[in-house]
Amino acid sequence: MEAGPGRPQFNLSLQLQETKMAIELTPGLISRLPHRERWFYNSRVRSILFQVLAIAAVVGFIYYFLSNAFHNMETRGISTGFHFLDNKAGFGIIQSLIPYDETYTYGRTFLVGLLNTLLVSVLGIVLATALGFVLGVARLSRNWLVSRVAAVYVELFRNIPLLLQIFFWYFAVLRTLPTPRQSISLGEAVFLNIRGLYIPAPVPEVGFGWLGVSLALAIGLAIAVSVWARRRQRLTGQTFPSFWVGLAIIVVLPLLHFYALGAPLQWDLPTLKGFNFKGGITIIPELAALLVALSIYTAAFIAEIVRSGILAVSKGQHEAAESLGLSHGQTLRLVIVPQALRVIIPPLTSQFLNLTKNSSLATAIGYPDLVSVFMGTTLNQTGQAVEVIAMTMAVYLLISLVISYLMNVYNAKKALVER
User: Any idea where the ABC transmembrane type-1 domain is (predicted)?
Assistant: First the structure.
Protein backbone atom coordinates (compact mmCIF):
# COMPACT_ATOMS: atom_id res chain seq x y z
CA MET A 1 0.00 0.00 0.00
CA GLU A 2 1.37 3.34 -0.99
CA ALA A 3 1.71 6.01 1.59
CA GLY A 4 -0.62 8.89 1.17
CA PRO A 5 -0.18 12.40 2.33
CA GLY A 6 -0.17 12.60 6.16
CA ARG A 7 0.33 8.83 6.62
CA PRO A 8 3.61 7.44 8.17
CA GLN A 9 5.70 5.18 6.06
CA PHE A 10 6.28 1.73 7.64
CA ASN A 11 9.26 -0.40 6.81
CA LEU A 12 7.99 -3.88 7.44
CA SER A 13 11.37 -5.58 7.10
CA LEU A 14 12.98 -3.22 9.66
CA GLN A 15 10.23 -3.93 12.19
CA LEU A 16 10.63 -7.65 11.75
CA GLN A 17 14.40 -7.40 12.27
CA GLU A 18 13.97 -5.38 15.50
CA THR A 19 11.41 -7.85 16.80
CA LYS A 20 13.77 -10.75 16.11
CA MET A 21 16.66 -9.04 17.98
CA ALA A 22 14.38 -8.36 20.97
CA ILE A 23 13.40 -12.01 21.13
CA GLU A 24 17.06 -13.10 21.01
CA LEU A 25 18.11 -10.69 23.80
CA THR A 26 15.24 -11.49 26.14
CA PRO A 27 16.75 -14.67 27.74
CA GLY A 28 20.04 -12.89 28.47
CA LEU A 29 18.25 -9.98 30.07
CA ILE A 30 16.13 -12.31 32.15
CA SER A 31 19.23 -14.19 33.36
CA ARG A 32 20.74 -10.91 34.53
CA LEU A 33 17.74 -9.90 36.56
CA PRO A 34 18.21 -10.31 40.33
CA HIS A 35 16.58 -13.44 41.71
CA ARG A 36 16.29 -14.87 45.20
CA GLU A 37 18.86 -17.56 46.00
CA ARG A 38 18.13 -20.27 48.52
CA TRP A 39 19.99 -19.69 51.80
CA PHE A 40 21.79 -23.03 51.83
CA TYR A 41 23.44 -22.17 48.50
CA ASN A 42 24.97 -18.98 49.97
CA SER A 43 28.63 -19.63 50.87
CA ARG A 44 28.71 -16.89 53.52
CA VAL A 45 25.63 -18.26 55.28
CA ARG A 46 27.03 -21.78 55.16
CA SER A 47 30.38 -20.69 56.66
CA ILE A 48 28.66 -18.89 59.54
CA LEU A 49 26.40 -21.89 60.13
CA PHE A 50 29.33 -24.31 60.26
CA GLN A 51 31.23 -22.06 62.69
CA VAL A 52 28.21 -21.83 64.97
CA LEU A 53 27.83 -25.60 64.90
CA ALA A 54 31.53 -26.09 65.68
CA ILE A 55 31.38 -23.68 68.64
CA ALA A 56 28.22 -25.36 69.89
CA ALA A 57 29.92 -28.77 69.68
CA VAL A 58 32.96 -27.55 71.65
CA VAL A 59 30.82 -25.87 74.30
CA GLY A 60 28.65 -28.98 74.55
CA PHE A 61 31.72 -31.21 74.99
CA ILE A 62 33.16 -28.95 77.71
CA TYR A 63 29.80 -28.81 79.47
CA TYR A 64 29.45 -32.60 79.34
CA PHE A 65 32.99 -33.07 80.65
CA LEU A 66 32.59 -30.62 83.52
CA SER A 67 29.13 -31.80 84.51
CA ASN A 68 30.31 -35.41 84.48
CA ALA A 69 33.39 -34.55 86.54
CA PHE A 70 31.41 -32.55 89.10
CA HIS A 71 28.81 -35.33 89.34
CA ASN A 72 31.50 -37.94 89.98
CA MET A 73 33.14 -35.75 92.63
CA GLU A 74 29.79 -35.13 94.29
CA THR A 75 29.02 -38.85 94.48
CA ARG A 76 32.42 -39.43 96.12
CA GLY A 77 31.92 -36.63 98.61
CA ILE A 78 34.58 -34.32 97.13
CA SER A 79 33.70 -30.64 97.49
CA THR A 80 34.14 -28.25 94.57
CA GLY A 81 34.89 -24.55 94.32
CA PHE A 82 37.76 -22.22 95.11
CA HIS A 83 37.07 -21.72 98.82
CA PHE A 84 40.11 -23.89 99.62
CA LEU A 85 42.35 -20.95 98.65
CA ASP A 86 41.46 -19.29 101.99
CA ASN A 87 42.57 -22.28 104.06
CA LYS A 88 45.93 -22.33 105.84
CA ALA A 89 48.62 -24.12 103.84
CA GLY A 90 50.72 -25.45 106.72
CA PHE A 91 53.86 -26.22 104.70
CA GLY A 92 57.05 -24.29 103.98
CA ILE A 93 58.62 -23.22 100.69
CA ILE A 94 62.39 -22.99 100.29
CA GLN A 95 62.25 -19.84 98.13
CA SER A 96 59.73 -17.03 98.08
CA LEU A 97 59.98 -13.56 96.59
CA ILE A 98 57.21 -12.34 98.92
CA PRO A 99 56.74 -12.89 102.66
CA TYR A 100 55.57 -16.44 103.31
CA ASP A 101 55.50 -19.03 106.10
CA GLU A 102 53.36 -21.98 107.14
CA THR A 103 50.58 -19.74 108.46
CA TYR A 104 49.71 -18.32 105.03
CA THR A 105 46.91 -19.65 102.82
CA TYR A 106 46.87 -21.78 99.70
CA GLY A 107 46.16 -18.62 97.74
CA ARG A 108 49.53 -17.35 98.93
CA THR A 109 51.23 -20.55 97.76
CA PHE A 110 49.74 -19.91 94.32
CA LEU A 111 51.31 -16.44 94.23
CA VAL A 112 54.67 -17.78 95.46
CA GLY A 113 54.76 -20.46 92.78
CA LEU A 114 53.66 -17.99 90.10
CA LEU A 115 56.40 -15.48 90.97
CA ASN A 116 59.04 -18.21 91.07
CA THR A 117 57.91 -19.39 87.62
CA LEU A 118 58.04 -15.85 86.23
CA LEU A 119 61.50 -15.35 87.78
CA VAL A 120 63.11 -18.36 86.11
CA SER A 121 61.25 -17.69 82.83
CA VAL A 122 62.31 -14.04 82.52
CA LEU A 123 65.92 -14.70 83.54
CA GLY A 124 66.07 -17.71 81.24
CA ILE A 125 64.76 -15.73 78.25
CA VAL A 126 67.31 -12.96 78.81
CA LEU A 127 70.29 -15.30 79.26
CA ALA A 128 69.30 -17.67 76.45
CA THR A 129 68.77 -14.78 74.02
CA ALA A 130 72.14 -13.19 74.79
CA LEU A 131 74.02 -16.50 74.62
CA GLY A 132 72.13 -17.61 71.51
CA PHE A 133 72.93 -14.42 69.59
CA VAL A 134 76.63 -14.72 70.45
CA LEU A 135 76.72 -18.36 69.37
CA GLY A 136 74.74 -17.64 66.19
CA VAL A 137 77.24 -15.01 65.12
CA ALA A 138 80.14 -17.25 66.17
CA ARG A 139 78.81 -20.03 63.92
CA LEU A 140 79.45 -17.71 60.95
CA SER A 141 82.85 -16.52 62.16
CA ARG A 142 85.78 -16.57 59.72
CA ASN A 143 87.88 -18.03 62.52
CA TRP A 144 87.80 -21.81 62.09
CA LEU A 145 88.22 -22.57 65.80
CA VAL A 146 85.47 -20.20 66.93
CA SER A 147 82.97 -21.50 64.36
CA ARG A 148 83.79 -25.16 65.16
CA VAL A 149 83.42 -24.62 68.93
CA ALA A 150 80.06 -22.95 68.40
CA ALA A 151 78.95 -25.79 66.12
CA VAL A 152 79.96 -28.42 68.69
CA TYR A 153 78.06 -26.52 71.38
CA VAL A 154 74.89 -26.39 69.28
CA GLU A 155 75.00 -30.04 68.25
CA LEU A 156 75.83 -31.20 71.77
CA PHE A 157 73.28 -29.35 73.89
CA ARG A 158 70.29 -29.34 71.57
CA ASN A 159 70.47 -33.15 71.14
CA ILE A 160 70.52 -34.00 74.86
CA PRO A 161 67.08 -34.03 76.55
CA LEU A 162 66.49 -31.01 78.76
CA LEU A 163 65.53 -33.11 81.77
CA LEU A 164 68.87 -34.92 81.65
CA GLN A 165 70.69 -31.59 81.51
CA ILE A 166 68.77 -30.39 84.56
CA PHE A 167 69.75 -33.56 86.42
CA PHE A 168 73.38 -33.12 85.35
CA TRP A 169 73.71 -29.57 86.64
CA TYR A 170 71.85 -30.34 89.85
CA PHE A 171 73.18 -33.75 90.90
CA ALA A 172 76.56 -33.94 89.13
CA VAL A 173 77.69 -30.33 89.63
CA LEU A 174 75.88 -28.42 92.35
CA ARG A 175 75.25 -31.31 94.75
CA THR A 176 78.98 -32.10 94.80
CA LEU A 177 79.94 -28.73 96.29
CA PRO A 178 81.37 -28.58 99.83
CA THR A 179 79.35 -28.17 103.01
CA PRO A 180 78.68 -24.69 104.46
CA ARG A 181 81.68 -24.90 106.82
CA GLN A 182 84.00 -25.64 103.87
CA SER A 183 82.37 -23.07 101.56
CA ILE A 184 84.17 -21.66 98.56
CA SER A 185 84.52 -17.97 99.41
CA LEU A 186 85.29 -14.87 97.39
CA GLY A 187 86.58 -12.53 100.02
CA GLU A 188 84.29 -12.16 103.03
CA ALA A 189 81.07 -11.44 101.18
CA VAL A 190 80.34 -14.23 98.67
CA PHE A 191 80.11 -17.91 99.60
CA LEU A 192 79.30 -21.00 97.51
CA ASN A 193 78.40 -24.38 98.98
CA ILE A 194 76.02 -27.28 98.56
CA ARG A 195 73.11 -25.20 99.86
CA GLY A 196 73.51 -22.39 97.37
CA LEU A 197 75.26 -19.14 96.56
CA TYR A 198 75.22 -16.43 99.26
CA ILE A 199 75.81 -12.80 98.26
CA PRO A 200 75.36 -9.48 100.10
CA ALA A 201 71.88 -7.97 100.18
CA PRO A 202 71.36 -4.20 99.80
CA VAL A 203 69.60 -2.53 102.73
CA PRO A 204 68.18 0.92 101.86
CA GLU A 205 68.45 3.71 104.43
CA VAL A 206 67.30 7.31 104.65
CA GLY A 207 67.94 9.10 101.38
CA PHE A 208 67.65 5.99 99.24
CA GLY A 209 64.80 7.62 97.32
CA TRP A 210 67.18 10.27 95.99
CA LEU A 211 69.37 7.52 94.63
CA GLY A 212 66.38 6.27 92.64
CA VAL A 213 65.80 9.80 91.35
CA SER A 214 69.41 10.08 90.19
CA LEU A 215 69.19 6.66 88.51
CA ALA A 216 65.97 7.65 86.71
CA LEU A 217 67.60 10.90 85.60
CA ALA A 218 70.62 8.98 84.30
CA ILE A 219 68.39 6.62 82.30
CA GLY A 220 66.52 9.60 80.86
CA LEU A 221 69.78 11.24 79.79
CA ALA A 222 70.97 8.00 78.21
CA ILE A 223 67.75 7.76 76.19
CA ALA A 224 68.10 11.40 75.12
CA VAL A 225 71.68 10.76 73.95
CA SER A 226 70.52 7.75 71.96
CA VAL A 227 67.73 9.75 70.26
CA TRP A 228 70.14 12.59 69.46
CA ALA A 229 72.71 10.17 68.04
CA ARG A 230 70.16 8.56 65.71
CA ARG A 231 68.94 11.95 64.49
CA ARG A 232 72.52 13.10 63.94
CA GLN A 233 73.36 9.95 61.99
CA ARG A 234 70.25 10.39 59.85
CA LEU A 235 71.21 13.96 58.96
CA THR A 236 74.99 13.71 58.65
CA GLY A 237 75.71 9.99 58.32
CA GLN A 238 78.18 10.17 61.23
CA THR A 239 77.90 7.54 63.97
CA PHE A 240 78.15 8.20 67.69
CA PRO A 241 78.88 5.63 70.47
CA SER A 242 75.54 6.28 72.15
CA PHE A 243 75.46 2.88 73.91
CA TRP A 244 78.75 3.30 75.72
CA VAL A 245 78.07 6.96 76.54
CA GLY A 246 74.63 6.09 77.90
CA LEU A 247 76.07 3.22 79.95
CA ALA A 248 78.71 5.56 81.40
CA ILE A 249 76.00 8.08 82.36
CA ILE A 250 73.94 5.38 84.10
CA VAL A 251 76.96 4.21 86.08
CA VAL A 252 78.68 7.53 86.84
CA LEU A 253 75.68 9.62 87.94
CA PRO A 254 74.58 7.30 90.80
CA LEU A 255 78.23 7.00 91.88
CA LEU A 256 78.48 10.79 92.10
CA HIS A 257 75.35 10.70 94.22
CA PHE A 258 77.06 8.23 96.55
CA TYR A 259 80.13 10.42 96.95
CA ALA A 260 78.29 13.74 97.19
CA LEU A 261 75.43 12.87 99.56
CA GLY A 262 76.79 9.78 101.24
CA ALA A 263 75.79 6.19 100.64
CA PRO A 264 72.07 5.71 101.46
CA LEU A 265 72.63 1.98 101.08
CA GLN A 266 74.14 -0.56 103.43
CA TRP A 267 74.94 -4.22 102.76
CA ASP A 268 73.72 -7.19 104.73
CA LEU A 269 76.61 -9.65 104.56
CA PRO A 270 76.01 -13.42 104.87
CA THR A 271 77.60 -14.90 107.99
CA LEU A 272 77.97 -18.50 109.11
CA LYS A 273 75.77 -19.20 112.12
CA GLY A 274 75.52 -22.80 113.21
CA PHE A 275 75.19 -25.14 110.25
CA ASN A 276 74.25 -22.57 107.63
CA PHE A 277 74.70 -18.96 106.54
CA LYS A 278 72.32 -16.25 107.67
CA GLY A 279 71.66 -12.91 106.00
CA GLY A 280 72.32 -11.73 102.48
CA ILE A 281 70.67 -13.13 99.36
CA THR A 282 70.57 -16.89 98.82
CA ILE A 283 70.45 -18.39 95.32
CA ILE A 284 69.33 -21.96 95.94
CA PRO A 285 70.95 -24.75 93.85
CA GLU A 286 67.55 -25.74 92.41
CA LEU A 287 67.16 -22.29 90.84
CA ALA A 288 70.74 -22.26 89.56
CA ALA A 289 70.52 -25.74 88.00
CA LEU A 290 67.18 -25.02 86.32
CA LEU A 291 68.26 -21.60 85.04
CA VAL A 292 71.58 -22.86 83.65
CA ALA A 293 69.98 -25.86 81.94
CA LEU A 294 67.14 -23.84 80.41
CA SER A 295 69.47 -21.10 79.18
CA ILE A 296 72.07 -23.44 77.67
CA TYR A 297 69.49 -25.72 76.06
CA THR A 298 67.38 -22.93 74.54
CA ALA A 299 70.45 -20.94 73.44
CA ALA A 300 71.45 -23.81 71.14
CA PHE A 301 68.17 -23.45 69.20
CA ILE A 302 68.32 -19.65 69.22
CA ALA A 303 71.85 -19.83 67.79
CA GLU A 304 70.56 -21.71 64.74
CA ILE A 305 67.70 -19.24 64.34
CA VAL A 306 70.15 -16.33 64.41
CA ARG A 307 72.48 -18.06 61.96
CA SER A 308 69.66 -18.71 59.50
CA GLY A 309 68.42 -15.13 59.86
CA ILE A 310 71.84 -13.69 59.08
CA LEU A 311 72.26 -16.01 56.08
CA ALA A 312 68.86 -14.87 54.80
CA VAL A 313 70.27 -11.37 54.23
CA SER A 314 71.65 -11.10 50.72
CA LYS A 315 75.40 -11.07 50.20
CA GLY A 316 75.11 -7.72 48.46
CA GLN A 317 74.31 -6.08 51.78
CA HIS A 318 77.66 -7.25 53.17
CA GLU A 319 79.50 -6.01 50.10
CA ALA A 320 77.72 -2.65 50.18
CA ALA A 321 78.57 -2.16 53.85
CA GLU A 322 82.22 -3.04 53.24
CA SER A 323 82.37 -0.64 50.30
CA LEU A 324 81.22 2.14 52.61
CA GLY A 325 84.13 1.42 54.91
CA LEU A 326 82.15 -0.13 57.78
CA SER A 327 83.95 -2.58 60.01
CA HIS A 328 82.71 -6.13 60.49
CA GLY A 329 81.11 -5.25 63.81
CA GLN A 330 79.43 -2.15 62.38
CA THR A 331 78.17 -4.17 59.42
CA LEU A 332 76.52 -6.69 61.71
CA ARG A 333 75.08 -4.12 64.09
CA LEU A 334 73.89 -1.51 61.60
CA VAL A 335 73.14 -3.44 58.40
CA ILE A 336 72.82 -7.20 58.79
CA VAL A 337 71.15 -7.79 62.17
CA PRO A 338 68.34 -5.20 61.68
CA GLN A 339 67.37 -6.95 58.44
CA ALA A 340 67.84 -10.43 59.90
CA LEU A 341 65.44 -9.65 62.77
CA ARG A 342 62.52 -9.91 60.34
CA VAL A 343 63.43 -13.56 59.87
CA ILE A 344 64.58 -14.21 63.45
CA ILE A 345 61.66 -12.88 65.50
CA PRO A 346 58.86 -15.34 64.54
CA PRO A 347 60.79 -18.56 65.40
CA LEU A 348 62.39 -16.77 68.36
CA THR A 349 58.89 -16.31 69.81
CA SER A 350 58.38 -20.07 69.72
CA GLN A 351 61.61 -20.61 71.64
CA PHE A 352 60.54 -18.13 74.32
CA LEU A 353 57.25 -20.01 74.70
CA ASN A 354 59.08 -23.34 74.86
CA LEU A 355 61.42 -22.06 77.56
CA THR A 356 58.51 -20.80 79.67
CA LYS A 357 56.66 -24.11 79.40
CA ASN A 358 59.82 -26.17 79.92
CA SER A 359 60.33 -24.41 83.25
CA SER A 360 57.62 -26.74 84.59
CA LEU A 361 60.31 -29.47 84.64
CA ALA A 362 61.50 -27.76 87.81
CA THR A 363 59.38 -30.18 89.81
CA ALA A 364 61.93 -32.92 89.00
CA ILE A 365 64.56 -31.29 91.24
CA GLY A 366 62.25 -29.62 93.76
CA TYR A 367 62.40 -26.01 92.60
CA PRO A 368 59.26 -24.34 94.04
CA ASP A 369 57.61 -23.19 90.83
CA LEU A 370 53.87 -23.16 90.14
CA VAL A 371 53.71 -26.84 89.16
CA SER A 372 55.74 -28.04 92.14
CA VAL A 373 54.16 -25.87 94.83
CA PHE A 374 50.57 -25.45 93.68
CA MET A 375 49.82 -28.41 91.41
CA GLY A 376 52.00 -30.63 93.58
CA THR A 377 51.82 -30.03 97.31
CA THR A 378 48.62 -27.95 97.31
CA LEU A 379 46.80 -30.49 95.14
CA ASN A 380 47.91 -33.39 97.32
CA GLN A 381 46.70 -31.68 100.50
CA THR A 382 43.38 -30.29 99.24
CA GLY A 383 42.34 -32.84 96.62
CA GLN A 384 40.86 -30.05 94.44
CA ALA A 385 42.22 -31.53 91.23
CA VAL A 386 39.94 -29.78 88.73
CA GLU A 387 40.34 -26.32 90.24
CA VAL A 388 44.10 -26.56 90.81
CA ILE A 389 44.87 -27.97 87.36
CA ALA A 390 42.54 -25.48 85.68
CA MET A 391 44.23 -22.53 87.45
CA THR A 392 47.70 -23.82 86.54
CA MET A 393 46.77 -24.33 82.89
CA ALA A 394 45.17 -20.89 82.74
CA VAL A 395 48.35 -19.27 84.13
CA TYR A 396 50.62 -20.90 81.54
CA LEU A 397 48.13 -20.02 78.80
CA LEU A 398 48.04 -16.38 79.92
CA ILE A 399 51.85 -16.14 80.13
CA SER A 400 52.19 -17.62 76.65
CA LEU A 401 49.60 -15.23 75.20
CA VAL A 402 51.35 -12.23 76.76
CA ILE A 403 54.73 -13.29 75.37
CA SER A 404 53.19 -13.86 71.93
CA TYR A 405 51.49 -10.46 71.99
CA LEU A 406 54.66 -8.59 72.97
CA MET A 407 56.74 -10.39 70.34
CA ASN A 408 54.09 -9.75 67.68
CA VAL A 409 54.14 -6.04 68.52
CA TYR A 410 57.93 -6.01 68.24
CA ASN A 411 57.76 -8.00 65.00
CA ALA A 412 55.28 -5.49 63.53
CA LYS A 413 57.70 -2.65 64.25
CA LYS A 414 60.55 -4.49 62.52
CA ALA A 415 58.52 -5.64 59.52
CA LEU A 416 58.95 -4.04 56.11
CA VAL A 417 56.39 -1.32 55.42
CA GLU A 418 55.51 -1.03 51.75
CA ARG A 419 54.55 2.31 50.29
Answer: 114-407
